[in-house]
Every structure is written in C-alpha cells, then in structure tokens.
Here is the input.
Amino acid sequence: MNYIAPHWLPGGNLQTIWPALCARRVAGVAVRYRRERWTAPDGDFVDVDWLDAPAAKTLLVLFHGLEGSSRSHYAEAFADFARSRDYAYAVPHFRGCSGELNLGPRAYHSGDFEEIGWILARLRAQHVGPIVAVGISLGGNALLRWAEEMGEQAARVVQALASVSAPIDLAASGWAIGRGFNRLVYTRMFLNTMKPKALRKLAQHPGLFDADALRDARDLYEFDNLFTAPLHGFRNTEEYWARASAKPHLHRIRVPTLVLNARNDPFVPGWSLPEQQPAGPWVKLWQPAQGGHVGFAQGRWPGHVHQLPEAVGCWLEAHH
Here is the structure.
C-alpha cells in the first residue's frame, strides 16, 4: 500500500483520530445491516450484522477492534467496498460489543482464536463460495492467531485474510498506549467503556474480580491483570500478552495473508513490527510510513477512508 497522508493531516495521532470521527465512510447511501443472533457453543450469544448481496459468490468477513462494532468507521468503509463488488458482508461482534451485554462470564481478548474459529466454521458451512476475512486492530491479531493455530487447515475455511493495524506484539503495544499522550487520550477512551462493561459483568456474576481495584485501574495493563487475563484463562497480563501475540508465530500461517501496519501507528511502535523473512512466505507485509491506527484517510478536507478497504480488498481479490 503506497499511502501518503494529505498535507492537512500530519502525524500519527491526527491520522488516527480524524478518520474515526470526521472522514467520509461511504460513497453512497448509508449502510443498513440485517442482524442475526447466533447461539455460541457455551450457550451465550453472538450478534452478526449482515450486508446481503443476492447471489453473491464471495463473502467478506470483518472482525472489529477493541470496543468496535459494525458501526465503526472502518466497518462501514469495508461495507461500502463490499457493496461496490456485490460481495456478501458479515461483521460478527465480539461478546458485549453489539450493544447488549453477553450472558456468560467471558468477554473477548486479543488472542481469542477459538471464537474466531467457530464463527468462521459456521460461515463456511453456510456459504458455498469463497470467503475472505479482515481483522482490524485487536480483531486482526486474533484472526492471525487463528490462522497460526490452524496451519494448513485454514485454507479449507478461508481463501485469504488480512489484518489491519493489529497489535501483533501486545507487550510493545501495551507499553506504547500506556505512555504520555496515548495514556491521556486513548487509554482513557478505552477504559471509559471497558470499566462499566466489566462492572455490569460483575453484577451478572458476583465474585469475578475486585470491583474497587478495577475502578482504580489506570491503564490497560492493570485492567487486563484484573479482568481480561483471569477471565480467559491467563495467570496475569504478562502471560496473556505473551501467549496472545501473533508476531512470534507468523511463520506458521499457510494461507495467503496480508499484514498492514503504518509505521507511525501510536498504538503499534514501528520498532516492534516484523520483518519479511521471519514472517514466512505466506505472509505479505505492508508497512507504509504514514497512516496512523486504522486511519489512512485520503482526499481533500474532510477526507475519506475509501483507500484502505480498496487496497486491502483488491489484495484479497487477487489472492482468492
């Protein structure tokens, strides 16, 4: 991806914040979804939003990022791309992200490849044509972890996949988001939604964690140590971040895979990004100098975010 930011949008932070809040997401009419509720293997539910395309041969699946949804700017931009190609398009929501709190004690996390696995398996069972998948940020890391765990079996489910702005080295990203401006803005933004959800989860399932300690958490490291890690089978934040990170296992992937990270992403330090040779022959790395975190806005002010789904979508088309 040969991305150059417009002159009016300098720096990784502006390239992250402006596209999410102000840039145009769709070229035509607003995106309208049809929602399905699926019963998960553990009896909980997962909501999947659909953009239907009659007689669509290809299904594009998007896994959203931390606290994202089908209404995130990138999800609507990819929906617009799918609509332009007459693709079917599905956005499965991680637990608690569809607007309704899930029933069970689990939530979701960056290495949630089991959740990715059963969702993709169900989609494979009901769709007869090619399936391509995109994961954004947290969803991108989880999608990569699924492909790594599946090895050669992944190609029986999807024909190609891509991750965008994924924090594939979670310790490096945790360090970055816990410092300076990132801590003041992004950490606070995430915790402002994650803490209330966690406390509502505690009301559902008393005794899950220490409520006062969680209220006092000041960064994602502390939140993950109190909530994410123990609820999903990890001893602590260090074990969670180490086991869930996709970067060390990219060489295990056996399906065409694109990994896109801007080198000025505030959440994903450029020094932490992988190099091509260790990533293996099935993985293509795109690491433009600019773009921010799931930004890549283009055009005259106020800009649009069409270039990202176009570039990623065309790569997926070429590889399935």
Q: What stands out?
A: The chain has eleven helices and eight strands. Residues 88 and 243 are 33 Å apart (CA to CA). The chain has two domains: 12-169+246-318, 171-244. The chain has a mean pLDDT of 96.
